[in-house]
């Protein structure tokens, strides 16, 4: 499977509650919004790119990519963003990542795609630092109806839905940095230092 068969989606739709309610994708780190660092690393790995956002829509649109918002109201979690993104996805597969992980691997999509090249019903999810990293995943478009049904039943837990599917876990090793996300002022400072020296 080539990357031309994969649509990328950056999830920015959360409340940012652990960062004082700030819209994390737009927080400035090393003189740029955090999402710009993510786009720089993620965009070359996919054919098309969407941004899933539920506020500051006009600011996200200035980045030059289509912006899609959750249909389910009330910040229902990453699955709500994944569900609406699958509706807009024109590729057999969709890769997802969050807006607050500026060190994501440059081979993220290729490694997630490798074990599911011949399956359009298998979810491929990252194992990083010894545990699942569920917002880094490759999801087949064919699972759109399954996800709709899960959400309609009141389900919100991302790993619970993944485990209802065929699931492949891809181990990216023990380094926590590639999948570190930013939830505090201290983590923002560490990210800024890392990005300014990289």
Folded structure, characterized:
By secondary structure, the chain is an alpha/beta fold. It has seven helices and nine strands; from the N terminus they run E-E-E-H-E-H-E-H-E-H-E-E-H-H-E-H. The chain has helices at residues 34-42, 57-61, 78-88, 108-113, 144-152, 158-162, 185-197, and strands at residues 6-11, 28-29, 32-33, 48-52, 67-68, 93-98, 122-128, 131-140, 166-171. The strands form two sheets. A seven-stranded mixed β-sheet has the order 5-4-1-6-8-7-9, with helices on both faces. Strands 2-3 form a two-stranded antiparallel sheet. Strand 2 and strand 3 (32-33) form a beta hairpin. The longest helix is centred in the C-terminal third of the chain and has 13 residues, at 185-197. It is globular. The mean pLDDT is 88.
CATH fold title: Spore Coat Polysaccharide Biosynthesis Protein SpsA, Chain A
Low-confidence stretches: none
Number of helices: 7
Distance between the termini: 31 Å
What order do the helices and strands follow?
A: EEEHEHEHEHEEHHEH
Look at the structure and give the mean pLDDT: 88
In total, the number of strands is 9
- Overall helicity: 25-40%
Please tell me how large the radius of gyration is.
Answer: 16 Å
Proportion of beta-strand residues: 15-25%
Whole-number tally of structural domains? 1
Level-1 CATH class name? Alpha Beta
Shape: globular
Report the major sheet.
Answer: 7 strands, mixed
CATH superfamily: Spore Coat Polysaccharide Biosynthesis Protein SpsA, Chain A
Architecture (CATH level 2) name: Alpha-Beta Complex
